[in-house]
Amino acid sequence: MEYEITNAVRVTPSTRIRFKCTGCAECCRHVKQTVPVDSRDAFQITKYLIESGEEISCTDQFLVQYAEPAMINECGYFVYFLKTVGPDDDCIFLKDNRCAIHVAKPRACRVYPFMVEPTASGEHGYLYSLERTHHYRGPVVETRSWMKKHFPKEDRVFLQADYSRAPLIVSLLKRIPEERRTTAVIHFHRFLYSDYDLGKPFLEQYLRNQEKLLEVLSKMAD
Ligand code: SF4
Fold first, then answer.
1. Does the C-beta of 166 come closer than 6 Å to ligand 1?
2. Which of 57, 107, 195, 220 is 20 to 30 A from residue 43's alpha carbon, by CA?
3. Structural domain count of the chain
4. What range defines the domain where residue 87 resides?
5. Strands 36-37 and 78-82, how do they pair?
6. Can you give the pLDDT at residue 131?
């Protein structure tokens, strides 16, 4: 799926920038519908919240409480974003100017000030945010080293699988008759976000769920 990226420029792995977190939390404000929560993020954050004593037991509860869906295609394909609160649209996890889920924060926050963009060749492209320019002073940061630290292998495999199958899921959803579309979207949510054993590794469950989803949607589209 094509989507427009604004306020960012493409960089290469060897691009070096200057960056220092000043603790101002500006990157966590005015973030309505800008912090995506994908299947892996939902899994990791839910586990972290449970381990931290939060009274939730599954990804569904986390998503209801902390995220909101946004439709990106009229066929029913949607993505989740973290909710925001207050007049400045603060991220729901911003507490006293700090991230309450720092060790489990979503990929978009981990790789900031960079962004990751899967490419058709199976690699990943990187972009560099042009917003909040007061961050861009301090130590030199090389894109490659930053990604090695903040964009681990499992994340790369997941993102490529997620990205590469999205067009097929969209085309199947579009072929499913209108009267069965709601059921199809429920399956979409269930397999990609909900049907996980939090005690087991994420990636193999995700890949298996993705296959099951394609199977179910293919039958519904026939
Ligand atoms: S998850 Fe944490 S780092 Fe990301 S926007 Fe929210 S408060 Fe900021």
1. no
2. 220
3. 1
4. 8-221
5. antiparallel
6. 80
